[in-house]
Give the backbone structure.
Amino acid sequence: MTAQTAVAVPAGYDVEKVRADFSVLREQVHGRPLVYLDNAATSQKPDAVIDAITNYYRHDNANIHRGVHLLSQRATEEYEAARERVQAFLHARKAREIIFVRGATEGINLVAQTFGRTNVHAGDEVLITALEHHSNIVPWQILCEEKGATLRVAPINQKGELELDAFEGLLGPRTKIAAISHVSNALGTINPVKQMIEIAHASGVPVLVDGAQAVPHMPVDVQDLDCDFYVFSGHKVYGPTGIGALYGKAELLEVMPPYQGGGDMISSVTFEKTIYNKVPYKFEAGTPDIAGVIGLGAALNYIGRLGIEKIGAHEHELLQYATERIGKMDGVRLVGTARQKAGVLSFVLEGIHPHDIGTILDQEGIAVRTGHHCAQPVMDFFAVPATVRASFALYNTKQEIEALAQGIEKVKEILG
Amino acid sequence: MAELRDLYQEVILEHSKAPRNYRTLAAATTKAEGFNPLCGDRCTVYLCLKDDVIEDIAFQGSGCAISRASASMMTQSLKGKTTREAEELYERFHGMVTGENGGHSSDVGKLAVFAGVSEFPARVKCATLAWHTFKAALHGEQKPVTTE
């Protein structure tokens, strides 16, 4: 290791101490220490999150917003405290602008099926980008098909960056909503969302931002962005699977019809007429994933203690190091070389299919994602069937990137 | 590491780099498309059947070393066989790579090099994509088959 490639550790960030917070990182895989570089698929959970969930079930389990008994009150308090935690995390104006959903996917479907069905009609248009995950394509296709509307797609360049002029050119009087990713899951490109929102708003078009790949890496301020909707998944940000959040501007949420009917989303029900509950409860039908919400709150507290800026700086150093180290290896071609990137190094190896690479790396204890990353249009654009994706989290180290580089050498030795 | 060498045997690597019968068949009497939606592998199998005999067979597609080698060696194994013999070979091959018959590789001839696949459950679909596609062609499936 030369001095030039040494990674500067952000002041006050002790990665070894952080690693001790994650029991799973002490796992052995095929007899080797786990090198977990599949964080864009799902991150590992710190013990604090696992403990919060266990603690809830051991001591506080009860249904929320109902019983007068003590446990119900405790469960309700913890649940609503987590909502305030998400509000603070996204810098939303009000806690009632946060709706708990199963994940980013459900958040997008909720908006497509409520705001979308109310506002998109025959001949209208929905604008997305060529960088989207299937979860920000398919819900809009379903809506467009139902309504006779058209899905428009803003193109990207060879670096994997959005063509901003083309995006602007596609906004028209027929555009009823734009749905854009904050960070691309397949390539790691950071979109200039604040600028995109400003451009869209100038044409009177509301904007949904898919923040699933952004919130683990950077501070997000929905008021500063001025986005109309923002979604993310808990499990990519050190929380449990099956829980996520949708932020929506209160004035929009209030006039949107409910997503699902059931308990908790009503204020009164007769067979003749039902009056819906106020926001956010109108959108949270049925008993929610209470433990998941509490786990998500614990995950955001954990991030808050480390500091999202410090986490972002650490990951940025890792990405720069990996880009340099892996990108210069013989036969490696990086896919996605945007100037602004977060967390993701996607690449192909000449003459070797990503699936074979994944199997050999796994034998070395290294977990990466191989495949199309639920972004087949992105793969088509770069004319590759699949890529290898290494994605970084707050607990990854330079040594692990070195292990990946050694693993790639092994792949070339076996299959080259 | 012994297991990796079991999976990526020389014969498999050689076939993946220079697959046999990798072409279209102008005279094909039937063909089918196969797709593995998880990894994006694609495969088209062309068959030229005369009465009950596979007179010629070829494939095209994109995929990993295992799927290319499997398709290549499948075409070699099936040429000249009756459709019944082919289906029986499929059953034995499938049993071998899924480990259902205890990892035995009897009566599969050269295809025994794929026995190591049973140790890698995530890769079974790579080894069987061409075979599923072959069966679809044989039975005249109109829609692309998927491994899911």
Q: What stands out?
A: The longest strand of chain A covers residues 175-181.
